[in-house]
Amino acid sequence: MGIITDIWNGLCDFTNYVWCNGDLLAFLIVAALGVAGAIYVVTDKQPVHSAFYLALVFVTVAVTYFFLEAEFMGVIQMLVYVGAITILFAFSIMLTRRYMVEEGEE
Hints:
Elements: H1 2-20, H2 22-43, H3 47-67, H4 71-105
């Protein structure tokens, strides 16, 4: 009975700690989204989906900069990487796929 009580008390203490530190909870959610997005970038079969999962990873990095109070770096991350690099990847994948499909039809 003592082990169950100790586990329950430890779980209650952890829940209370996370509840009192909302930024920790938000960071854990953003980190989980970033890790899941990074896994999908590597494992997804369609390259366009991988490019947009990469955009999700870039957004989570930008949000992490905001958590670190580096707002300028977060804004630059959003503008340069999410806004420009990801769209460049998506357009190049779409254009390359069209040429590969046309060659395969011949």
